[in-house]
Amino acid sequence: MKKSESETALRALCHRWREVRGYSELPNERLSFSDFLGWVQSNYPAYLKFRTTTSVAYDAEMWFDHEFKLRWRS
Q1: Number of domains in the chain
Q2: Helices 33-43 and 3-21 meet at what angle, rounded to 10?
Q3: How many C-beta atoms lie closer than 10 Å to residue 70's C-beta?
C-alpha cells in the first residue's frame, strides 16, 4: 500500500475508532495512540503496511496527533 493511501485511511480511522470505542466525550488529550494502534492492527492491518523512512508507528502517531490537534505531543 502507498503511504499516502494509508495516511488518508488512518486519518479517517482515527475518528471511526473514537466513535466505536465510545470515546466521543473524552477530551482529545486523554485519547490513547497505543489503543488506536492496537485497534488498527486488529481490524485494519493492511493500512500499516507501507514504506517509510521513519517507522510506520511514528507516522501513524503523527497523523493521530494531527487529527486530534495534539501537536504538543509530536
Answers
A1: 1
A2: 110
A3: 16
- Asked if residue 74 has pLDDT above 50, the reply is no
Say if CB 11 and CB 63 are below 8 A apart. yes
Contacts of 20 (CB under 8 A, 6+ apart): 39
Listed in sequence order, the DSSP H helices in 1-74 are: 3-21, 33-43, 56-67
Site of grid cell 500499516: 48
All three cell numbers of 47: 493500512
Kindly give, in sequence order, each residue whose CB lies less than 8 Å from that of residue 33, ignoring residues fewer than 6 positions away. 60, 61, 64, 65
Q: What is the domain range of residue 38? A: 3-72
**One-letter amino acid of 5:** E
Q: Are 40 and 17 in contact, with CB atoms under 8 Å apart?
A: yes
pTM of the predicted protein model? 0.92
> For position 10, what pLDDT does the model report?
98
